[in-house]
Amino acid sequence: MNTPQGRQPHAQTVLISGGGIAGPALAYWLHKFGFTPIIVEQAEEVRTGGNRIDMFGVGVEALDRMGLLDAAWAAGGPGPEMVVYTGKKDYPVPIAIGDVDTTSPHRAGFAIKRGAMCELLYENVCDDVEYIFGDSITAITPTDEGVDVTFENSASRHVDLVIGADGMYSNVRSLIMGESANYSHYLGTNLVIFTLDNFLEMRDTMAWHFWPGLGCAISTFPGNSEVEGVFLIRTEKPLEVRDLTRTQRIDLVDSLIPVDGWHVPHLRRAMRDSEEFHISPSTQIRMDSWTNGRVALVGDAGYCPDPMTGQGTSLALAGAYILAGELKAAHGDHRTAFRAYETNMRPFVTASQQVGKFTTAFAAPAAGRTGVWMGEQAIRASFSLFKLAQRLGVPLPGAGSGNKLALATY
């Protein structure tokens, strides 16, 4: 770490809760900049499951700066091109993630399985960073000189900073900043994702069909051997599924699908047999501040834009780089670093979350012909903006200058 001669960073040991994407990315940069990161992860090992994630814009740039872009590309593949169905109409939609101008300051985008990305990030830091698997934080107690942290299973530790990189249902956020309900904003739909065989022999394609109150998609994974099935179900309140068994969750989803056209019957059957099945409300985490004292949040824990935006991973990787970089620039002075982190991330987060509201509105339109018509018009109007934004290296559909985040060099 480059600091003035004889000057050591104020904060040195940084405990990171969460070993998915934001956590290991942050640990990489902290270690590179001279800090001592420690990762605590509730799972017993790296989580390898999960859905397809789309990488473009600043997320690709952040991976490139980590030296992982080529490996990530090799583990993934081109993003799918989209075809949208509304009633009897069929619109081919040219928004393939990989179809960007490579003369842009950001390289071409791609798609990769979440599990593959998690493994890649873990392997990049595991030799340099201490991991505590199978454990979680139960108490965070600020002191004059740092933070005392209590764990569910391990002995307590004293660290300089604590970072919550533990997702939308962040434990760190709840311990320091209050219950999730204070920051969680439901967007009106519930996202159901599962995997199945590529029964249509699709190649690098996403097919999306929507009806009043329901969206349904089939999307290829990189390699095209499997596809991802998606239902987006509009409900007045988010579905309560935490206390339900897997079978009960599937039964609930099945009961809320009012159509049997297109490929819906096949998808309903495949959903029951799928090894990967996830359901969650379309939710944004909105906070006035992502820091409190010596504690900060990064990624979905602080600013989940909603999975439908495709922005979560890019936000996590960019946020991790900026947070670590500002700690370096401030020589470990967390007060200065946290202020700069919030200033530099806020415009991009705000714009991404605006996209989240738009996406759920057209992907599962409100009931009635008017809702479907409005969804169709929104699609027509937005695709040219998607294309333009990608060519400019902006991973958002033209929401104004605030949606372009240029990564500084630390």
TrEMBL record:
InterPro entries noted in UniProt: FAD-bd, FAD/NAD-bd_sf, FAD_aromatic-hydroxylase
Any one GO molecular function term: FAD binding
Superkingdom, taxonomy of origin: Bacteria
Pfam families assigned to the protein according to its UniProt record, in alphabetical order: FAD_binding_3
SUPFAM superfamilies: FAD/NAD(P)-binding domain
Every FAD-binding domain range: 13-351
Entry protein name: FAD-binding domain-containing protein
